[in-house]
Amino acid sequence: MTTTWHSRAEKVVADHWSDASAALRCSLSFATVYVYAPRGEGFTSAAARLLCQRVKAINPWWLPQYARQVVELCARERRFAEVFARDAWLVPVPGCAPTERPTAACALAMALHELGLGQGIWAGITRRAAVARSATALRGERPAVRQHYESFGVAAAPRGQPLHRIVLIDDVITKGRTLFAAALRLRCTFPHADIRACALVRTTGFLSHLDRVLEPCHGVVQWAGGDARREP
Fold this sequence. Notes:
Layout: H1 8-23, E1 27-36, H2 43-56, H3 62-77, E2 88-92, H4 104-114, E3 120-121, E4 125-127, H5 145-151, E5 152-154, E6 165-173, H6 177-189, E7 194-203, E8 214-224, E9 227-231
Parallel strand pairs: 1-7, 2-3, 2-6, 6-7
Antiparallel strand pairs: 1-8, 4-5, 8-9
Helix pairs in contact: 1-6, 3-4, 5-6
């Protein structure tokens, strides 16, 4: 069967995906600080939902406080030292559609850098085409890793600045598809860079009860059965 490409750009993306597919056996390490149960009941679950609302709304008072918690964990417990190396570039993950408006991920990256993490902020991943919003899409209609990958573009690297370490910054990690696709896109362009991720909040699926909101952890997103799998 012969594939007909409608444009050179489509063929380039397909070739890149082929290259990325070879790297799909790799994994993406990530760090998170808070936990959130979308359907949880009780005071703690409600507090977690409020936290997410504040982050999504880029609350000018609360977001820096949440970012400060990340910095304190780095300084006090050295918990995220491997993620936030001194020479790391913080790369905000774009939202589901192209926009010039600041996103929660961008605001979080700025807050983290202002508090001393990373050597700079680089808008290295761009959203060239819109995808469905995972939070509101039906379960079978959420964008796949490849959809995210094909909708992303990579910006020019900072002039004169080596990209040895990259930390993808996002507000919430659910299944990990967006972060994984962003890491794959960057890996195709910068194959020798150390790429990790930090999401402020991780979801906990269908848990009905949370014991705490602050629950720092390290995790990994891997390729499994044609999809991303997050652990924990």
